[in-house]
Amino acid sequence: MTTEQLNKRQKEALSVIEESGFVTIEALASMFEVSQQTVRRDIILMDNLHLVERFHGGAGTLSSSKRSGYIQKQIVNTSGKIAIGHTLSLVIPLKADIYLDFGTTVETASLIAVKGKTLNIHTSSCATAMSFQKSGNENIYVIGGKISGKDGSLTGSQTTEQLDKMRFDYALIGCSAIETDGSILDFDANKIAMKKLAMKRAKRKILLVDSTKFGKTSRECFAQISDFDLIIIDQQPHHSFNPALEQAKEIRMESPPD
User: Fold this and answer.
1) Contact 49/5 with Cβ under 8 angstroms?
2) CA torsion sign, 219 to 254 to 201 to 116?
3) Which of 90, 136, 156, 239 maximizes the CB count within 10 A of its CB?
């Protein structure tokens, strides 16, 4: 990747995208006082140079930068994810049917929460399924489909068709970002479709979110804080999120030990 072919405005736009994770064409046009068509050309150039990922309506960072790889994500705020798992363990009863969303927060927290419990675990994440298999859990069901992404996520029409026929006691959902208005966002349209459907098929919807996700932005809003029966976090976010958190039906928090 190289920025040598970018002019000053394009380099500044790239910095904005890398800092935010995702920025709309409209926002960039307003920020740099140029037309949206000019911004589109800039994004196409940066996409061709493998500096950003082009989406409908905007641009986001590549998996190798802000959207770090699955292994890298596993070591980000590990203590916070473990703390979320301890809180979650007090919520999930024996013999429950659980859907596990994609992502390292859900994976790490769930491994802590289900330890020693007999549960039926359903997921479309190969990475999560393998982690549970290695930990000795036997009742693991993988919802099949097309493998997409380096984390072995299974998505597509075959996956959604299977998921649409299922029912869960709990859906444990993760996200890429939470904005101050209470919007909950993610990057991948296929994964977003799975999140929405799993939430519809669950009796209780639980959002598992570590503190690093607050204040970030992403490609698409798939839910609001008020859509969840319970939100589990590892520490109190900035006070600017207080109005949004007041929308929550219930919040539980357990900070990691010092």
Assistant:
1) yes
2) positive
3) 156
Select 8-60's CATH number: 3.40.50.150, 1.25.40.10, 3.30.300.20, 1.10.10.10.
1.10.10.10
The parts of the chain modelled with pLDDT lower than 50 are 64-67
Amino acid 209: pLDDT: 95
pLDDT value at residue 64 = 40
The pTM of this model reads 0.74
Q: How far apart are CA 40 and CA 54, in angstroms?
A: 9
Token readout for 196 is 């929405």
Name the residue among 241, 183, 213, 207 with its Cα closest to residue 77.
Answer: 213
pLDDT score for 254: 78
What is d(CA 238, CA 46) in angstroms, rounded to the nearest whole number? 33
Residue in the structure block whose two tokens are 């600017």: 240
Tell me: the pLDDT tens digits for 17-28?
877 677 888 889
User: Helix, strand or coil for residue 197?
Assistant: helix
What does the pLDDT read at residue 65?
40
In the DSSP assignment, the letter for residue 256 is P
Are 174 and 212 within 8 A, CB to CB?
A: no
CATH code for the structural domain at 71-253: 3.40.50.1360
